[in-house]
């Protein structure tokens, strides 16, 4: 008996683009905290926050279900400095692949200088 098998290849569509926001704002005085929020579809395994040209990043496996259709993760910098300023973006890992990047968010650090100069993003 001869059996012929036919394989049908389907190209999976691109994963939905994630979104990014910053709280309390994108303009932060030195020494103040900022929290980045990354949002994506349900089923995300990992969110990644990248800084500038992908040379610095932080992964978060603690993904929360925000709604029946939305998941999210947060990334906090406890005390921003001028070194924390720059462009940030999110992406996520789902279904064995990485999503495209979110739009860039520019963090601006300006105002009265606090006592600390630690950026808190040294882990990235």
TrEMBL record:
Record-annotated Immunoglobulin domain positions: 23-110
Keywords: Disulfide bond, Immunoglobulin domain, Signal
Pfam families linked to this entry: Ig_2
GO BP, sorted A to Z: immune response-regulating signaling pathway
SUPFAM superfamilies linked to this entry: Immunoglobulin (SSF48726)
Domain of life: Eukaryota
GO cellular component: plasma membrane
Keyword Disulfide bond belongs to the record: yes
PANTHER family in the record: LEUKOCYTE-ASSOCIATED IMMUNOGLOBULIN-LIKE RECEPTOR 1 (PTHR11738:SF129), MHC CLASS I NK CELL RECEPTOR (PTHR11738)
Protein name: Leukocyte-associated immunoglobulin-like receptor 2 isoform X4
Taxonomic lineage of the native organism: Eukaryota, Metazoa, Chordata, Craniata, Vertebrata
């Amino acid at each position: 008996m001869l059996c012929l098998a036919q394989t049908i290849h389907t190209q999976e569509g691109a994963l939905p683009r994630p979104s990014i926001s910053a709280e309390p704002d994108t303009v932060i005085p030195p020494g103040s905290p900022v929290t980045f929020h990354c949002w994506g579809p349900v089923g995300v395994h990992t969110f990644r926050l990248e800084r500038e040209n992908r040379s610095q990043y932080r992964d978060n496996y603690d993904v929360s279900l925000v709604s029946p259709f939305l998941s999210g993760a947060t990334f906090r910098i406890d005390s921003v400095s001028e070194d924390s300023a720059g462009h940030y973006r999110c992406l996520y890992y789902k279904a064995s692949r990485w999503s495209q990047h979110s739009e860039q968010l520019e963090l601006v650090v300006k105002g009265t200088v606090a006592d600390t100069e630690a950026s808190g993003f040294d882990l990235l």
